[in-house]
Design brief:
Radius of gyration: 22 Å
Strand order of the largest sheet: 1-5-4-3-2
Distance between the termini: 26 Å
CATH superfamily of the largest domain: Kinase associated domain 1, KA1
Largest sheet: 5 strands, antiparallel
Order of helices and strands: EHEEEEHHH
């Protein structure tokens, strides 16, 4: 992964209809004697999940979600990297706390301004924005640290899809 974006994405376009592609992917997954030791892959409905096995996970280990949808006469596999669900929940909780903090400071500062006292609460608002910016920087840093795993998960998904369409 050369591009550092929040939740990087990529697409695969195939000439196989979605239902048939998912059927073939499940067949490939059933016929493989064992998952490789660097990734686990599973499918349900029109989704494919590729993740790092628990024993190899690091805090910043990625999770690759792929969604198969109809695209013209074939299908499109829309793939998105994200943090593991438990890490993503923590990130969203920090976003919520930062947003609540910013809103609270704005409201308290506005009340101070209306009653004509020193509106010092406005000075705290940048702390919330620093928290949000810190999350973005940490996310980009984490992507850089897990670049090898992201490359492997993408390669693994592409291998399974290639076996399914050939």
């Amino acid at each position: 992964m050369k591009s550092l974006k929040l939740k990087p994405t990529f697409r695969l376009e195939l000439d196989v209809p979605p239902e048939e592609l998912m059927s073939r992917v499940r067949t490939v997954l059933r016929n493989q004697s064992a998952q490789d030791e660097v990734s686990e892959i599973a499918s349900a409905g029109h989704c494919i999940d590729v993740k790092v096995p628990r024993q190899r996970q690091r805090f910043w280990s990625p999770h690759l979600n792929a969604h198969v949808s109809e695209h013209g006469s074939g299908s499109e596999v829309y793939c998105r990297f994200s943090p593991r669900p438990e890490v993503w929940t923590m990130v969203m909780a920090v976003y919520l706390v930062a947003t609540f903090f910013i809103c609270s400071c704005f409201i308290y500062g506005y009340v101070q301004w209306v009653i004509e006292t020193q509106p010092w609460a406005f000075a705290l608002v940048p702390i919330g924005f620093v928290m949000i910016a810190g999350l973005h920087v940490a996310s980009l840093f984490g992507q850089k640290l897990s670049e090898d795993q992201m490359d492997h998960l993408r390669t693994r998904l592409e291998q399974v899809v290639k076996l399914a369409v050939s």
